[in-house]
Amino acid sequence: MTLGIIENLVNDLTRLPGIGRKTAQRLAFFILNMPEGEAKSIAKSITEVKDKARFCSQCFNITDSEMCEICRDEQRDDRKICVVEEPSNILVIERSRFYNGLYHVLLGSLSPMDGVTPERLKINELVRRIQAGKVEEVIIATNPNTKGEVTARYIRERLEGLPVRVTRIAYGLPMGSDIEFADEVTLSKALEGRRQM
Question: Is residue 193 part of a domain?
Fold first, then answer.
C-alpha cells in the first residue's frame, strides 16, 4: 500500500519539466521525510496557485487580482513596454533590476506548424495598448530562436505606422566567455547588436 502511494507521487512528479524518474524518486522520499507542516505548506501553495492565479487584464502576467503588481505600480515608466513570450520571462528581466517599464506577455510565440497563429497570441491587445496613447517605445524581448525572431518581425510589421519606437534586445556573447568558443550565429548577433563606446 505504501509503495503504491510513493509510486503515485513519483509518477506525478515526473510530469514536471526536467524531472526524470530518479529525481522524482529522490523528491518523493524527501517529501515523505519532511516535517508534516512543510509538506502541507507546499501542497497548499500548489492548490492556491491553481485556484487563484489568473492573467493580468492589461499585460497578461500572472496575478491573483485584476491587474498585476507591475501594472499597478505608479513608479514604473508607462512610456515603455517590454514584450515577452511568457510570464516567466518577466521574472528574469526583473532580477536584472535594470528595466523599470511595463510588460506585455504574448503567451507564446508564432509557430504556424504547431497551430500558433497571430490570433492565438496577445498581439492585438498590444496594438490596442499602443493605440491608446502614452507608449513611446516597445522593446521586443522574444527568445533568440527561430520562433522568437519570426514573432519579433511580425510585431514590428504590425506596429509600423504607429507613433512608437520599436527596439529589439541585443544578444550575443555572454560575459566571461572567449570569442573562439562562440558559434557563428551568436557572434553575428553580437556584432549586429554592437553599440558605441
Answer: no
